């Protein structure tokens, strides 16, 4: 979700003891589309205890096809190649290669490199298989919402410089689909960080070039080169506020939505270290099961639109009628019945197997969030009228018992209830990880007056948050939001970064890492907040 100065605008729209990791400035060059050889480093994903998916891109000097090999070794000199594989790539898949290698050892760090037909090597990456059996500690780094023109990807660089992260997770908005000057406006762009193409992404070539631009960023390359990553898309990998049958940012004169959606999915599966499986479960020994989900393009119902209700003769009555009727329609779904059934059965299997935690990644926030009654005072005096109207609408909706964001789980209450009731019935130890909002949040999730789990919602890598449309002290905004929303226990509405979660058999804790800046290549950071949950409680300590 992108929030600019319209329906989306208001959400936008101490040392860690970890050394700062400076990265060079990134300037877009024509080499994004003309480079030959290994063009965009390496990456790994889809981790298991005995296998790993390995990614690269190789463009031959001549011809439209090439065969590349991959080698893995436990030592950086590759004195003994432990495993490998090969693939024929070509123009039909934008010269990307994804090779899944089996026969690996659990909980083992591997070095890997690709070999071209001429014997040249790719950069060397490192990856780590998942453990089996008892696990004392496992740490993940979770990212979302990286908008290149808004600033440097210091969150990626910071995580890549650490030696205590086992796995990276990206919950979506890996890039943004807008044309140059749209989001951000030209005045807000950071010099030298303007991705190609300059136009909005509509066709397969557009999406491929945008991936190539983002994947040329040195901080993002460093992260992919260092850690395996579990990735899932949200809306901007296709178009803002996308759903099964369309998107807010897809207009009738932009062609057929299904063609655009298919193009975005093809490019994603080419350029990302992810399988073609739409959803998947990953076992972290006997410690946890991590679930990758899909909540955008395959089955999501169109988001509710409450704007017309404010044009009714009695908006209050219209909002209440919506609250008691269409808003609670059980057919309105985020995941669709097939994925809901899969996730329910997979979580049940995890609980039966004795996994200590069930960790579910969603693209958007699940915690209940309503607009505080005094939120209008947050808007800058010179803010556009539409920003003020957005807040007024949110305040009116809250009086009727409704949230202000219908693109997240706030627009899908019946689906949310099914998921949380299912987790309660299973006796799951539920942790939800989410992104999308650009800000940082910690929720105790409840259903029918009983605890159901916790949610750690991540702030953006670089996309701006509440602060972009407000001159109010962020601490005042955060405190007001917490007071107005019983499920919300903490939030930060002004800083960028990522989340670092640590799982142990008895406790889970999550650090929100806050960067000092994204306007320059600088990874100075601090821990802005830490939330902790003890196993068996389903609420934060």
Structural write-up:
The protein has 541 residues and is of the alpha/beta class. The chain is built from ten helices and 22 strands. The chain has a nine-stranded mixed β-sheet. It has a seven-stranded mixed β-sheet with strand order 13-14-15-16-18-17-19. It has a four-stranded antiparallel β-sheet with strand order 4-3-6-7. β17 and β18 form a beta hairpin. It is globular. Residues 3-30 have low confidence and may be disordered.
Topology (elements, then pairings):
Layout: H1 31-34, E1 37-45, E2 52-59, E3 65-73, E4 83-90, E5 96-101, E6 109-115, E7 125-128, E8 138-143, H2 154-160, E9 167-170, H3 204-214, H4 218-226, E10 228-231, E11 242-243, E12 246-247, H5 257-271, E13 280-284, E14 288-292, H6 315-324, H7 336-352, E15 357-362, H8 385-399, H9 413-426, E16 430-434, E17 440-447, E18 450-457, H10 474-484, E19 488-492, E20 497-503, E21 507-515, E22 525-534
Parallel strand pairs: 1-10, 8-9, 9-10, 14-15, 15-16, 16-18
Antiparallel strand pairs: 1-2, 2-5, 3-4, 3-6, 6-7, 8-20, 11-12, 13-14, 17-18, 17-19, 20-21, 21-22
Helix pairs in contact: 2-4, 3-5, 7-9
Shape: globular
Strand order of the largest sheet: 5-2-1-10-9-8-20-21-22
User: Termini separation (Å)?
Assistant: 30 Å
* Helicity, as a percent range: 10-25%
Rg of Cα set: 23 Å
């Amino acid at each position: 979700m992108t929030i600019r100065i319209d329906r989306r605008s208001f959400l936008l729209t101490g040392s860690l003891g970890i050394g700062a990791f400076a990265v060079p400035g990134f300037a877009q060059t024509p080499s994004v589309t003309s480079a030959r050889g290994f063009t965009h480093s390496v990456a790994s994903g889809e981790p298991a205890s005995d296998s790993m998916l390995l990614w690269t891109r190789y463009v031959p000097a001549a011809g439209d096809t090439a065969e590349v090999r991959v080698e893995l070794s436990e030592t950086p000199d590759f004195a003994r190649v432990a495993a490998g594989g090969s693939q024929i790539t070509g123009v039909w898949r934008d010269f990307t290669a994804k090779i899944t290698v089996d026969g690996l050892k659990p909980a083992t760090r591997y070095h890997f490199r690709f070999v071209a037909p001429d014997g040249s090597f790719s950069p060397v990456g490192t990856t780590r298989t998942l453990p089996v059996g008892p696990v004392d500690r496992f740490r993940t780094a979770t990212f979302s919402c990286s908008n290149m023109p808004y600033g440097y990807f210091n969150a990626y660089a910071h995580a890549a410089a650490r030696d205590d992260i086992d796995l990276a997770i990206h919950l979506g908005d890996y890039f943004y689909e807008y044309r140059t000057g749209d989001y951000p406006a030209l005045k807000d762009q950071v010099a030298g960080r303007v991705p190609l193409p300059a136009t909005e992404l509509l066709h397969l070539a557009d999406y491929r070039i945008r991936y190539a631009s983002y994947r040329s960023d040195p901080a993002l390359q460093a992260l992919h080169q260092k850690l395996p990553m579990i990735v899932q898309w949200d809306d901007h990998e296709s178009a803002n506020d996308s759903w099964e049958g369309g998107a807010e940012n897809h207009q009738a004169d932009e062609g057929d939505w299904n063609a655009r959606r298919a193009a975005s999915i093809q490019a994603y599966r080419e350029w990302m270290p992810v399988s073609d499986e739409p959803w998947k479960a990953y076992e972290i020994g006997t410690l946890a099961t991590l679930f990758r989900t899909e909540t955008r393009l395959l089955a999501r119902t169109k988001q509710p639109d409450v704007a017309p209700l404010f044009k009714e003769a009695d908006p209050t009555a219209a909002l209440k009628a919506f609250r008691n009727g269409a808003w609670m329609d059980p057919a309105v779904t985020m995941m669709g019945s097939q994925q809901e059934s899969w996730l329910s059965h997979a979580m049940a299997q995890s609980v039966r197997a004795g996994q200590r935690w069930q960790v579910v990644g969603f693209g958007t926030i699940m915690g209940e969030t309503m607009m505080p009654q005094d939120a209008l005072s947050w808007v800058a005096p010179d803010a556009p009228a539409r920003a003020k109207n957005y807040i007024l609408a949110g305040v009116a909706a809250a009086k009727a018992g409704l949230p202000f964001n219908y693109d997240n789980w706030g627009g899908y209450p019946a689906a949310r209830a099914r998921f949380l009731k299912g987790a309660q019935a299973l006796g799951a130890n539920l942790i939800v990880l989410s992104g999308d909002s650009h800000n940082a949040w910690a929720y105790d999730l409840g259903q029918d007056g009983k605890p159901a789990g916790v949610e750690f919602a991540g702030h953006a890598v670089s996309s701006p948050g509440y602060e972009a449309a407000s001159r109010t002290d962020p601490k005042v905004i955060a405190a007001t939001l917490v007071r107005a929303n019983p499920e919300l226990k903490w939030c930060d509405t002004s800083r960028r970064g990522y989340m670092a979660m640590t799982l142990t058999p008895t406790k889970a804790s999550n650090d929100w890492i806050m960067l000092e800046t994204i306007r320059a290549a600088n990874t100075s950071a601090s821990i802005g907040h830490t939330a902790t949950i003890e196993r068996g409680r389903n609420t934060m300590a």
